[in-house]
Amino acid sequence: MTLKVHHTLLLTGAAGGLGIAMRDRLKANCEVLRIADRCDLGPARAGEEVVLADLADAAAVDAMVKGVNAIVHFGGISVEGPFGPILQANILGVYNLYEAARKHGVKRVVFASSNHVTGFYKQSETITLNHPARPDSLYGVSKAFGEDLSRMYFDRYGIETACLRIGSSFAEPKDRRMLASWLSFDDLHRLITACLTTPVLGHTAIFGVSDNAVRWYDNSAAQHVGFVPQDSADAFRDAVYARTPAPDMSDPAVVFQGGGFLFQGEPMTAHLPPPKAV
Q1: Can you name the residues that pair with 170 across neighbouring β-strands?
Q2: How, if at all, do strands 48-52 and 30-37 pair?
Q3: What is the value of pTM for the model shown?
Q4: Is residue 272's pLDDT more than 60?
Q5: Has residue 269 got a pLDDT over 90?
Q6: Any idea what the Cα angle at residue 55 is, between residues 104 and 141, rounded to 5°?
Q7: Helices (H), the chain
Q8: Structural domain that includes position 136
Q9: Distance in angstroms (rounded) separating the CA atoms of residues 234 and 181
Q10: So what's the pLDDT on residue 271?
Q11: What is the largest CA-CA distance in the chain?
Q12: What DSSP character marks residue 273?
């Protein structure tokens, strides 16, 4: 049984992949789930309120946050790309969200950060929550900004935040990298639930991964959150190995934890030579 400590819970980014996966699960955490996105979410289901809002629109975000008790912030751009849209959705958007939380007295936020905040550590390393950020992309930089901004709002205004450095959350691992970074949907819900219900959250980062045998991440500094993953990528290991080639150790996507994000997006490929004419 999931303890309902918040009457009205806001889920942003409800039209995204993880938002869709969490939409029904999070109804167990509250009496009213307010779902928000800038895309059409369809009609409200039982126990829901639906809000259309662009995170870059401060007035819309203010109205979206008014009357909620806690926020699960999954909104924004979730992939690498040009800086302009990332700036609007992930940097201005998270600022608008925390300003609205401050104005309306919301004291707990679960912020979807990313493993790409630390993507330039090597896959041969195990990192703790005390390791400095090493973003692998403009997207990763935007999430590092969100972590720092949320820290300031905790220190200055007492808004508790869990920064979930989500690994690779899909129905199952897609490749060998995800044998270390995979987070099942059910474990993601367990992680959010732990962050919403732990008596004292404070401000903490926590790596969002399942109980995988291959480990890059050490969550020992976040034991107070109470997250205990119950799923594992190990059940998929044989199938993943059978359908994927042996790793090329000269490929940065194999060397570094960030994988393919390292050189995605037009701004991050400017250092490469132009393609040869054919």
Answers
A1: none
A2: parallel
A3: 0.93
A4: no
A5: no
A6: 110
A7: 17-23, 58-65, 83-86, 93-104, 138-157, 178-181, 185-197, 237-243, 252-255
A8: 6-269
A9: 11
A10: 46
A11: 63
A12: P
Between the two ends of the chain, the Cα-to-Cα distance in Å is 62
CATH number of the domain to which 10 belongs:
3.40.50.720
User: Which helix (DSSP H) or strand (DSSP E) does residue 151 occupy?
Assistant: helix 138-157
Q: What is the 3-state secondary structure (H, E, C) of 221-269?
A: HHHHHCCCCCCCHHHHHHHHHHHCCCCCCCCHHHHECCHHHHHCCHHHH
Q: Confirm whether 125 is domain-assigned.
A: yes
Select which of 139, 153, 217, 241 is catalytic: 139
Position 278 scores a pLDDT of 45
**How many domains are contained in the chain?**
1
CA distances in angstroms from 180 to 50, 176, 212, listed in the order given = 35, 8, 6
Phi-psi group of 257: left, alpha or beta (phi > 0 → left; psi -120 to 50 → alpha; rest → beta): alpha
Check if the beta carbon of residue 138 is closer than 8 Å to that of residue 147.
no
pLDDT, tens digit (0-9, with 9 covering 90-100), for 154-181 = 999 999 999 999 999 999 999 999 999 9
195: in domain: yes
Tell whether 277 is covered by a domain.
no
Does the annotation count 153 as an active-site position? no
Tokens representing 83?
């800086």
Do 78 and 54 contact (CB within 8 A), yes or no? no
